[in-house]
Amino acid sequence: MAEKPAHNWRNTLKRRLLVSVLLLGGWAVSIEARLAYLQVVRHSHYTERAENQQVRTIETAAERGDILDRNGNVLAYSVEVDSIYVVPTEVGDPDAAAAALCRALKDCEARDRSTLAERIRRGRSFAYVRRQVSTEQAERVAALKLEGVGFVKENRRFYPNKELGAHLLGYVGIDNAGLSGLEATYDSLIRGHSGTMLVQTDARRLVFSRLERPPTSGATLELTMDQTLQHIAERELRVGVEENRATGGTAVVMDPLTGEILALANWPSFNPNTYREARPETKRNRGVQDLYEPGSTFKIVTASAAFEEHVVAPDDLIDVSAGRIKIGKTRVINDDHRYGVISFTDVIVKSSNVGAIKAGFKLGPLKLGEYVSKFGFGRRTSPDFPGESSGIVWDPAKLTDSALASLSMGYQVAVTPLQMAVAVSSIANGGSLPEPRIVRAVIQDDKRTPVPHKVVRNTVTANTAAVLTEIMEQVVERGTGTRAKIPGFTVAGKTGTAQKVVSGRYSRSDYNASFVGFVPSRKPQFAIVVVVDSPHGKNGYYGGTVAAPIFQRIADAALRLRGVTPSVNPQPPIIVDPRDGGNRPLQVRGPAELPGRNESSPQAPVKGVPDLRGLSARGAMQAIARIGMKARIRGAGVVVDQQPAPGSTIEPGTTATLTLERRITANTESSSSGGTQQ
């Protein structure tokens, strides 16, 4: 019987051990490979995910500085509001989350909901749901307690006066950046510097560390604008535009001595709080961006140049009897009326195109072009308005006779309302062209830095400015600008009516009606320009019937606002009688009634009234007070005429009428002992 082989259990054990070792080795290699892949190949990816889950860096916006008017009234400020954000990686169901958020916001459409869901689905570390929401919306979203949804504070710009000064202030976008007006021009100053907040959380998303770099607030702007005067200008401009059924209009109010812009109104306007809803044309700053041909208001430049170059004097006679002038072979320019032979003063007072053209021809294109440049036309006037139009001015060397004729009466030159305000200010202040400014000071770190006033250049001499002021007064007193009269004040002004260019041709139905002037004319407080675009109302389209009444209403309210005393037959001053312990006020009617004078004692007639010509108002008053006379003052400057005449015999208490003018002559300069008021 054969013997069975012994079972080789050792071989079996070896095979099993080998298989186990191979399996364990493969498992170990795969683990090491996976670890190498995660920590080497995918290291940056998972590091970024860990940081996104554990560390969040949130930018905190800086608070924009306020904007104030010249009296400290707040025109623009920032308020803190909530913005809603989402961390997409922490949201399980994007569609459900988007639907819940839209229900809480209550103003989502189907497209908004799908856009939000797609934004969450992209899987980025941070995405805004809605920025700068209302308090009610923030509370409803917070009540949902959705995973991955949070809130961050942002600053929203707020304009408490709504439309007031909208074109000057501008508006701010959702990213806290100025997009228009002063908000854009001075954005780097107002905006400040953003801060950052580093937040670390644990696995349960509980914050255990917070590191914050606070933002730096922006500077505050103090404007030259007067909030009340701005309201007056906007109110009267709007009434005028609507009354005359016009397309729009602009009013600029300046201090002619400093160049400070006290008000700049445009209509139509918009609310900067809701600027996205405004039509583009309502957001345009007409005062510095819109160009127009000024028409007859530009004749003040022609007249200034003529006086400066001594080619025409105010009393020179100009023959405009034909009422028309022929330029070249075909062009004929007409006056509205036939005036006959009139002085050059009346050429301006009656706004004769023919007379202005004749003066322009005497000047020639080069000289007239020189004064157009001197008055600031053809270039930007202010650093506060980077979007300002420079205007259109022809090269004087290329002016034909026809172009020179047009320029002399205010055509073939395009200007802005602000440029006209600056030009008329230089006449009002005696011949200095001021740089217009809207920013009065910058306030930062409790330090106020004023913006200095600047004179760009001299345009004309003081004598020319004085003569032109007298002529402009007559424009209002008896010329085309009578509807600009203000009771109790002398007003200097000039009307303008110019056809608009439509589709490359001058329109027969659309005009720009304008009025420029300053008040009081002898001691100017305000230079005002009013331009009305395309009036079609019952007042017609002339500057004297459309723009002058708006000027009158703005100027009258401005004078009352500032408390300017009347310059025509002013009320006598009130003084206190020292004999009554200062309790009894007296109204002074003349030097003879001053306290301490014995009215009952008889006085002899005064022989030889002194010659007061060449004296200032103060010097003349002192001279006649010594002889017991009263005085009635007309005008301002130095005495050029007096009644009674020098040397006359009069009774004590007689009233002398003194006529004062600003005109400077060799005689008045040498004879004045009391100082000349110009």
Description:
The chain is an alpha+beta fold. It folds into three domains: 57-223, Penicillin-binding protein 2a (Domain 2), CATH 3.90.1310.10; 227-562, 3-Layer(aba) Sandwich (Beta-lactamase); 603-671, Trypsin Inhibitor V, Chain A (2-Layer Sandwich). It is built from 20 helices and 28 strands. Strands 2, 3, 4, 5, 10, 18 and 19 form a seven-stranded mixed β-sheet that branches. The chain has a five-stranded antiparallel β-sheet with strand order 12-11-23-22-21, with helices on both faces. The longest helix has 33 residues, at 9-41.
Features:
678 residues; alpha+beta; Penicillin-binding protein 2a (Domain 2); Beta-lactamase; Trypsin Inhibitor V, Chain A; 3 domains; 7-stranded mixed β-sheet; 5-stranded antiparallel β-sheet; 20 helices; 33% helix; elongated; disordered C terminus
